[in-house]
Amino acid sequence: MSTPQGNNGSQTLVAGVRFRPAGRIYYYDAHQYPNLKTGQYVIVETQRGKEAGRIVIAPKQVAFSELGDAPKAIERLAEEDDLRSLLDFKAKERDALRTCNDKVQQRQLPMKLVEAEYAYDGSRVTFYFVAEDRVDFRALVRDLAAAFRTRIELRQIGARDHAKALGGVGPCGKTLCCSSWLTEFGAVSIKMAKEQSLPLNPTKISGVCGRLMCCLAYENDQYVDAKQSMPKPGDNVLTPSGLGRIVGQNVPRTSVDVLLESGATITVPVREVSRPDGSALPTSHGGCSTDGGGCCSTKT
Fold first, then answer.
1. Quick one: 247 and 176 in the same domain?
2. Which positions ≥6 away from 295 have C-beta within 8 Å?
3. Phi/psi of residue 224, each to 5°?
4. Contact 112, 129 (CB under 8 A)
5. Would you call 18 helix, strand, or coil by DSSP?
6. Single pTM value for the model
7. Do the Cβ atoms of 285 and 229 come closer than 8 Å?
């Protein structure tokens, strides 16, 4: 499909469309609707058929290199009847979930339903579920098709998507990132917790989904950069209290723990530490400021 271009051949006019709260943003060609405003609803073609989506990014010029595939065009603005239909079917989702759950119980299938989602025009209803293993739900689909008289889709989701759909409050006391603003799940590893000197206790570094907390990745790069310019554990250094050996690093406070020759352990700002011969250490170029402020000042 050829894509219309703006004045600059390397760019095109696109608008960001979202279909679910805190869901991924998809870009669509907006040349036919350059005056779209955020909050408006449009009808677009997706891999699952026609969908009603909400404009969350007003039309703007974007380089083709940032888009990957050529964006599909926005088909039309959502009309009043479309929005009324969207709300009507949204109100039916809870009853649909209850009906599907009854069918699951009758079939004794090892799955837990999470959410039901109607297409804006009722042409499809999708049921999201979690399960330990793969589930043969072909008979269930037939039961549901007979009950709803529309296209049925069942989608198995993971623990993180389950938490995103349900929402909740994280250990920090704030609404879950995944259900409020996080659109995609990035890679998170136990190495990130080690890098930030966090306790490797699963209850301390796991989210409500039971997986490693997504926020472990937020400041990891800053920790890595900051540590590269701090003296390493085992290094011999000179402090205002005398010679000693580095036994710990504190990136948020931009300080190090030093074991002195006397056997005492002290905490010293990095700026007050030098090499044993008195020469200065490399200055920090990481994400945390030298006075303990910056992006990771809240971690301890």
1. no
2. 219, 222, 287, 288
3. -60, -45
4. yes
5. strand
6. 0.75
7. yes
| Residue 286, C-beta contacts closer than 8 angstroms, at least 6 positions apart | 222, 223, 224, 225, 226, 227, 228, 229, 230, 251
pLDDT category at 276 given cuts 50, 70, 90 is confident
pLDDT digit string, tens, across residues 106-146: 999 999 999 999 999 999 999 999 999 999 999 999 999 99
Last residue of a domain, one of 38, 57, 78: 78
Q: Rounded to whole angstroms, how far apart are CA atoms 222 and 225?
A: 5
- DSSP H helical segments within the chain, as ranges? 64-67, 80-91, 93-107, 138-148, 159-166, 177-180, 190-195, 202-205, 220-228
Domain boundary among 129, 157, 185: 157
The number of folded domains in the chain is: 4
Rounded average pLDDT over 99-104:
97
Boundaries of domain holding 18: 11-78
Tracing tokens 């989701």 back to the chain, one arrives at 157
Residue pLDDT, tens place only, 153-183: 999 999 999 999 989 999 899 999 999 999 8
